[in-house]
Amino acid sequence: MQQAPPPSGPPENTAAAPPDREATPAHVPVAAHISNLARLVIAAVVLGAVVLTVFCAQNTGATSVKFLVWSWPGAPLFVVILASVALGIAIGGLFVWLRLVRYSVEQRIPGRRQHRS
């Protein structure tokens, strides 16, 4: 039985030195790419989530909701409050959207725009 001759040259090192990390932008940490505004937005979202969680945890009492013929006895208070806020935001957004559509139509039709004081 013949043995293979030993390899010529320097022995291969399986734990090679890491490549030059400054030369390749793929190795830059993700945190280095985030701008200060993005960090501020992330912090605001996290803070908002914490405040919302505390609000929900402290307002778990049951309340009764009645609207016309519809009734929901025993509704959690935080659900009623958050649903009211969401509905208000949706209705307000609808009015803003309608105003933007109206403004867009006025801009497309020449001579239709009227100056209001």
From TrEMBL:
Chain ranges passing through the membrane: 37-55, 75-98
Biased composition regions of type Pro residues, renumbered to the chain: 1-10
GO cellular component: plasma membrane
Residues covered by region (Disordered): 1-23
Coiled coil: none
Domain of life of the source: Bacteria
Keyword Transferase: no
Domain Lipopolysaccharide assembly protein A: 58-107
Stored InterPro entries: LapA_dom (IPR010445)
Keywords tagged on the record: Cell membrane, Membrane, Transmembrane, Transmembrane helix
Name of the protein in its database record: LapA family protein
